[in-house]
Write a structure and sequence with these properties.
This protein is mainly α. It is built from 6 helices and 2 strands; from the N terminus they run E-H-H-E-H-H-H-H. It has 2 domains: about 90 residues, no CATH class; about 45 residues. The mean pLDDT is about 80.
């Protein structure tokens, strides 16, 4: 076991850097921007004290000098300030509709579950492909 194993160091990420943790383990920062948008990277910046980005990425994810935080450190209040400054009404409306679509999908799947015959015979027949 090496000296540095298990030690978390300060990481400054570039567009080509791969995270190696979280829900986007195998993706580079640029791929995360392409797939997920900037929201995940903003959350990462403000919520992880050992993660920082180069200035080009901070500019791309709309973190200006007045919204930067000293690293190592985290600051959830500044994340709220970023949201107030950067989220437009259109984004808020789109997020509202997205939540409604998710709720509608969940209710449909609940209906399918509730309308299914859960008797022992019906489940046995379903398992045997009938």
């Amino acid at each position: 076991m090496g000296i540095m194993e298990g030690t978390v160091l300060m990481r400054t990420l570039t567009f080509k850097s791969v995270l190696w943790f979280g829900k986007h383990t195998d993706l580079s920062v640029q791929q995360i921007i392409d797939v997920e948008g900037i929201g995940y990277l903003v959350w990462l910046y403000y919520s992880n004290e050992k993660i920082n980005f180069v200035d080009e990425i901070l500019k791309k994810i709309q973190i200006t000098d007045d919204l930067k935080i000293p690293k190592p450190g985290k600051n959830h209040q500044m994340k709220r300030e970023w949201k107030k400054k950067n989220l437009t009404d259109a984004m808020r409306i789109d997020n509202f509709h997205k939540k409604n679509r998710i709720a509608k999908f969940r209710s449909r799947s609940n209906d399918r579950y509730n309308n299914f015959n859960h008797s022992k015979g019906a489940l046995k027949a379903k398992n045997h492909g009938k």
